[in-house]
Amino acid sequence: MEHPQTFEPQGRPLELSCSVEKEDLFDALVLQQRGHGSSKRYFQMALALVLAVGMFYSWLRDRGYTMGLVLAVVCVLLFFALFLAPGFIMRHTAQMLSEQVRKLHFRVYENGVWIHDGMVAVTLPQQQLAVYENTKMYLFETRTQRLYPLPKRAVDPLQRKMLTQLLKGYPVYYVFSEAGGPQKNV
Q1: Can you name the residues that pair with 147 across neighbouring β-strands?
Q2: What is the pLDDT of residues 9-39, one digit of tens each?
Q3: 68 vs 29, 57, 62, 63, 79, CA distance in Å?
């Protein structure tokens, strides 16, 4: 069992508050998925299509082999399930979370973060966080994959600059561009 590290804040905190909406939570889940990569899912989708084509081809060669047609249809359905299901799951999860989390308060230190979600306050050293940034938000993810989004609309430009400087010192800090994937910021 892993023992939690004691968190002793260093430096002056940058205090931020934001209201969180369903769309913010959905965007946070999408950003988390981009951060973790989707290569396994893409491989499974490609495999399903290859199998569908192979089964359909075998049915075309021998029209009596109806199992080939059935398996081709099953593989196509599997492809669409792999393609569509994550979006449905993320939307449902965002809906469920939006009913519980309305407002978040952050204190960002040089060596960690204090976050209060209205019910519970957590303090996390920077070693226990992954921080992602895109054009819409900063996203704090714990080791247990708990997400805390900080929409950029709630942060004024001076605070953004200060926050980016603080986060650059974190061991896991990724900046996402709209065109590409993550770029580790060091």
Answers
A1: 141
A2: 788 888 999 988 899 889 888 888 877 777 7
A3: 38, 8, 9, 9, 16
pLDDT in tens, 91-138: 998 888 888 778 899 999 988 899 998 788 888 888 888 888 888 899
pTM confidence score: 0.74
Same domain flag for 58 and 127 = no
Per the domain annotation, does 7 fall within a domain?
no
Rg (C-alpha) for the chain, rounded Å, is 22
Q: How far is CA 160 from CA 28, 137, 138, 144, 173, in A?
A: 18, 10, 10, 26, 15
Number of independent structural domains in the chain: 2
